[in-house]
Design goal:
single chain, mainly alpha, two-stranded antiparallel sheet, 2 strands, about 50% helix
Length: about 120
C-alpha cells in the first residue's frame, strides 16, 4: 500500500467506493414521491371548515391571507396586493383588447404587435 493520509474527506482505502459501483446501489424507493409531488398532494387535499364547507388546503391558505389582509395585517397585505393589482390589470386588459378588436377591427396578429410595445398584454 502507498502512503495515504487518512483524514477529512479522505476515508481509508478499504472504505472508499469501488470503481464502477454506485454510492447508493439500491437508489430511491419506487413508490416514494418527490418533494414537489408531496407538496402538491398536500395543498390539494381537502379540509372541512368550521361552517362545514369543504375546501382544499391551498384555498384555505389563500382565504386566510385575504382575510388577514382585510383586517389590516401588513404582511398579508404585501402578499395579497400584487395579486389584486394583476387581477385588475387583467380585467382592464380584456376590456382594452375587446375594444381594439371591435372599434378598429384588429386581428390577433395586430394585437400581438401592439403587445410588443408594452401597452397591452396579449396572450392567445
Amino acid at each position: 500500500m502507498t502512503d495515504y493520509n487518512v483524514g477529512y474527506k479522505k476515508p481509508p482505502v478499504d472504505h472508499q467506493f469501488q470503481k464502477g459501483q454506485s454510492g447508493n446501489p439500491n437508489g430511491r424507493r419506487k413508490g416514494s414521491l418527490s418533494f414537489k409531488k408531496t407538496f402538491s398532494k398536500e395543498l390539494n387535499s381537502n379540509i372541512i371548515l368550521a361552517n362545514g364547507e369543504k375546501i382544499s388546503k391551498g384555498e384555505a391558505i389563500i382565504k386566510q391571507a385575504v382575510n388577514n389582509a382585510a383586517t389590516g395585517n401588513e404582511k398579508s397585505i404585501k402578499i395579497v396586493m400584487p395579486y389584486m393589482i394583476n387581477d385588475e390589470r387583467d380585467k382592464n386588459n380584456e376590456k382594452v383588447i375587446k375594444r381594439l378588436k371591435e372599434e378598429f377591427g384588429l386581428s390577433d396578429k395586430d394585437l400581438k404587435n401592439y403587445a410588443n410595445t408594452g401597452f397591452i398584454y396579449f396572450n392567445s
